[in-house]
Amino acid sequence: VIxxxxxNLLQQWSDELAKWSMxxxxxxxxxxxxxxxxxxxxxNRSNGKELSILIVSHVLCRDKEFVSEIExxxxxxxxxADEAHHLGTISGSRGLSVNYHYRLALSATIERYYDVExxxxxxxxxxxxxxxxSLEKAISDGKLCQYEYHPYFVDLTxxxxxxxxxxxxKIAPLLNSKDPEDRTKLERYLENLKDxxxxxxxx
Length: 203
Fold this sequence. Notes:
There is one protein chain. The protein is an alpha/beta fold. It has helices at residues 8-18, 32-46, 58-61, 64-70, 116-126, 135-140, 158-171, 180-198, and strands spanning 2-4, 25-26, 54-57, 77-82, 100-106. A five-stranded parallel sheet has the order 2-3-1-4-5. Helix 2 (32-46) runs parallel beside helix 4 (64-70). The protein is globular. The chain starts with a strand and ends in a 5-residue tail after the last helix.
């Protein structure tokens, strides 16, 4: 199973796999149930002699029925999580089934912003980093273009600062909480804070 955060990446992954002569099936909301059920039935009958590559969104990957079907797989299953840091949330981690024997997380930012517990969820499930590909190496390999980095500092407006202060105060007492309800609130509050910090009126 290859799971991605955005639907536009579904076809992108499928196209890349096709370059290696690897066929895949994209599962999307509304049509995936029977396809997945039939695929798993076929895999279970093959006794591990068949390969099936399913590409899904993070939202579908954590769906209760989807997870239930994955846990019917009798042979070794693997999950490849693109932009894996998205799966460190309470809701996202519901898709991290124990039935995935092999696990690979892909991310440039596996350390989750203000979320030590979410980061630990990912590390406990996927393990430690096994390979790093730096920006410097990507540029030297010709995978990325040369660029110059010029920071542009923007002051928050009075309204933005008030909002930033409001969400920061609400976030602080939840940072070390283990309570699932608090963790869900924290995820929502962090998204609100992120919007203030990354989308100021100055831009």
